[in-house]
Design goal:
This protein is mainly β. The protein has a single domain, classed as Beta Barrel (Porin). It has a 16-stranded antiparallel barrel with strand order 3-5-6-7-8-9-10-11-12-15-16-17-18-19-20-21. A two-stranded antiparallel ribbon has the order 13-14. The N terminus is likely disordered.
Amino acid sequence: MRPTITLGTIVAATLLCGYAEAQIDSTLLRRLPQDSLTHTLNMDAAYHRPFMSLGRLPVSLGGYIEANWQHLGTEGVTEGHQFQFRRFTLFVSSSITERIKFLSELEFEDGARVISVEFAALDLEFDPLLILRGGMILNPIGAFNQNHDGPKWEFVDRPIAMTQMLPATFSNPGFGLYGRRYTGSWMYGYEFYLSGGFDNSIIANEGNKTSLPTAKENAERFEKIASGEPLITAKIAAGMSTIGELGLSYMGGVYNQWQDDGLTIDTKRRVDVVDIDFNTTLPFETRITAEWAWVFVDVPPTYTQQFGKQQYGGFLDVVHPILSGEMFGWDAAVVNLACRFEYVDWNVGSFQETGETIGDNLWSIMPAVSFRPSPETVIRLNYRLLRQQDILGNPPTTTGGVLFGFSTYF
């Protein structure tokens, strides 16, 4: 069972930290540099965060928060004004000794309704190309799953395909190896992990559809693999400072319980995910971030066709700075114009009886304007236009509305 974190525990820890800070000269607090490298890969995101060091204590702290307001409606029906406190995330890191580091990420979502350890791993570096990582790892499927911190994005909502088709911030107990090399302006990296993973809930769920994110709701995955076989996650990435970064990743394994007390009770059924991601900055400072994923699930023949055997989807972000410089007393403020394009198909294929294309898809366009008083803080205004079609291919419903919010590291 996972340890229970009570509100009393959180309050006590907060008071203790406040007392400790009161006893220490504020001049001992200092912001640690995020990274000495000018360019980094997405796999470096856990290291490339702002941390605060407290005197000579071996532990550094950091984190970020996200909050927003939204007013959305579907076909003229709306729930009105909604205020949301999306996330409060704490980072704790420690350099135990040379080339041995511990990093962790504790997240409080939806006003602490959901509390989870997203990442808590020990890194032992034998060589820059051979680093052992173990603990609660973040499965590196795609770029967003690794580089998801709210202050890095110009949009209030996370990408639909990476959160509702793939399980966003999918973390599991496991072990593996990773490494990276920087040669001039070139960057190379790889990751390979064996971990816990999916279970039968990806098809046996209340939504009555194939859904990989439902596996995150099963707390038993932190101590037991349903199939008894590890989930494999692997990624390779290469980048150049003047071109951008390209990443290819794979995640797959048997998801169902196929034996019980040594007796075979079902066929081994696999789930496999392939993902490609790319990001670059064009010569005129326009940033492009794109990711696309394919999901393949071995669905039992007894299930109806509403359970998709294949899914695909992704997003494309375009961000361009239109103003930069001193604004409202901030020396390096930036105003960005941005737009996100998204598409997801949860059930690729045709009905066996009629040959007609199965629906269950959506597309979305989200124009945005953001203001960054500093690189670590963003205030963002988005408009969502989304059209979603049901499985039968009926005329799609339209959702539209405004989202406003902020996110900042601290």
